[in-house]
Design brief:
alpha+beta; 6-stranded antiparallel β-sheet; two-stranded antiparallel sheet; elongated
Length: 174
């Protein structure tokens, strides 16, 4: 499952970890503890700042903690982890999941969508999605509004309006 567990006292100066957690963190085999200071040096500042806010809510207000963050591995690459933690009897108990593959796929999808936006813009294509069950269209870009001479405030066309006002009468039966 690519998941590891940890436990720390409420001060969180050091966490006890299981074997799988050590592997996730890129630590030597047999490592069963890691200091908060070492972890902090391996997490990018923006991820660390968000984590600190959530950790304050965890320890100060006993709100459950969930955070996704990047962790610099000792051998160079970055791993994405998703952490869930809670406080019980003044101890923090948590689990980490390796979500690197999901994050890489999300990044690839984001890049692909950006390339598609550039291509549709350059080709002056109007983009929409149609839901035949609800007879609703979602217009995805400004060009589709330009094509039909509408503003965003007018909203997209329904099927009846499209057939009545834009479709050639010879094509309407189809």
């Amino acid at each position: 499952a690519k998941m590891g567990t940890f436990e720390a006292d409420i001060a969180a100066n050091e966490a006890r970890i299981d074997e799988q957690e050590a592997l996730l963190l890129g630590l030597p085999e047999g490592t069963r503890a890691i200091s908060a200071a070492e972890m902090r040096t391996r997490i990018p500042l923006e991820d660390l700042d968000a984590s600190d806010v959530k950790q304050e809510r965890l320890t100060g207000h006993r709100e459950a903690y969930h955070h996704e963050f990047r962790l610099a591995m000792r051998d160079g690459p970055v791993r994405w982890l998703s952490t869930y933690a809670d406080v019980r009897s003044n101890r923090i108990f948590g689990v980490n999941f390796d979500i690197t593959q999901r994050k890489l796929a999300e990044a690839e999808l984001h890049e692909s969508e950006a390339r598609l936006r550039v291509a549709t813009s350059g080709a002056a294509l109007g983009v929409f999605e149609w839901d035949p069950m609800t007879d609703q269209a979602v217009w995805e870009n400004d060009r589709i509004y330009e094509i039909f001479g509408r503003s965003r405030a007018d909203g997209p066309l329904g099927k009846r309006e499209f057939i009545a006002n834009f479709l050639h009468p010879d094509d309407a039966p189809e």
